[in-house]
Amino acid sequence: MTMKKSPLPLPSGFGHGTAGRRAGRAGISPDGGPPARTPAPSPARARQRFFLPPLLLVLVFLGQLALGPALRAADTLVCASYPVWLFARYLNEGRDYYKVELLTNPATGCPHEFAPTPADLNRLTKTRILVKNGLGLETYLDNALKVAPTDVEVIDASRGLPTLSMLWNRLDFDGTMGPDPGGRQPSQIPNPHVFLSPRLAGQMVANIAGELSRLDPGGAEHYAQKNAAWELETARLEEAVAEFRQTRRGYKIVTSHGFMDYLAQDLGLAVLADISPLGSEAPPSAARLAALGRLVRREKISAVLLDPEADPGPARTLSSEAGIPAAIIDTSTSGPGDPPPDFYQRVVMEDIDLLSRMLPPNREPPPAPDTQGAMLPPGNPRPVPLPGLDGEEE
Questions:
Q1: Which helix (H) or strand (E) holds 232?
Q2: Given pLDDT bands bounded at 50, 70 and 90, which one contains residue 352?
Q3: What pLDDT does 23 receive?
């Protein structure tokens, strides 16, 4: 979304009458008549004419200082991951004060393994504003920010949000819930995938809007209005979440990794296990897959859900052997390079629609799951054909 800033307001009369001045210098009267005879200026008048333009330039510069850093800020705002790029683009739309860019490729997906190119790093050296998801989602930033200007403004979209640990509801079914490679206990590691929850995404949009208002005070009213518009446009989505929770809460699921925990919490679902071990992108071992199968049967788990980057093979195996549906959930971490303003809302609504087809309504709504597990709803849903996991491999 390319933006051209409006020039600074100039004093009344400044810059007007250009054609007339050019005509006078060429010896032509502006009205086409004979050239007017102009008396020679006095020395004082000549000095005034000489010093006026530099004086105006100084005044303009001092005006910039008085208006604060927002007017002098670079017009490029760089986003470290796709979801916060969607949010920042939405807020900037209509004001176009910033050129909002995505540092990663739109098709990257979750940026856990993203490695910036020299060109990406070069862009960081020229930006003064960076928006990130935070909570460790963009691990590449730890090193990449070393090349950024020391005064770069970093907007942490997840600042102040309530978080779940990577162990939320998990069962240690194969004895692998030990410390991560850095020595941290899983219960100490926050799950960074807050953006897939419409409730928390709204708070992220509000965080970004607040910071943009601080950096661009002239646009504060615009950002507040866009934030309010986001809330209105997300209302139908939140109604769908509430309806799902009312009619389907209590189902137990397995996911490829912790991408869905916050949305699952909103929907009343319990994520009991991940296909891959915590902190690993590698496919599960045969022993882990066998243990997962036993867990699915013992806990009567109802579905297997994957992020788009996950290997569908293990999920297909679990789905086939346990007789439960499996599907790919759009995480909103990738998408088109020029998405519509409501792209996020469309993605999450499609996710909820898909889950509603997979998990039928409960005959008697069970209690909502807590952090220790969830009650199983009556019956187990029959497997249904789903794109990407049934039939031919993609």
A1: helix 220-233
A2: very high
A3: 36
Q: How confident is the model at residue 181 (pLDDT cuts 50, 70, 90)?
A: low
What number is the average pLDDT over the span 109-118?
82
> Quick one: DSSP state of residue 187?
G
In the chain, the amino acid numbered 47 is R
- What is the DSSP track for 83-138? HHHHHHHHHHTTT--SEEEESS-TT--SGGG----HHHHHHHHT-SEEEE--TTS-
Following DSSP, what letter does each residue of 253-279 receive, concatenated? EEESSGGGHHHHHHHT-EEEEESSPTT
Contact 133, 87 (CB under 8 A): no
In whole angstroms, give the CA distance from residue 346 to residue 359: 20
Instruction: Answer whether residue 289 shows pLDDT above 60.
Output: yes
Backbone torsions φ then ψ of 129, nearest 5 degrees: -130, 125
Q: What is the mean pLDDT of residues 81-107?
A: 94
What is the three-class DSSP state of 21?
helix
Ranges of each domain in the chain: 76-176+187-358
Distance CA 95, CA 388 (A): 40
Q: Which CATH class is domain 76-176+187-358?
A: alpha beta
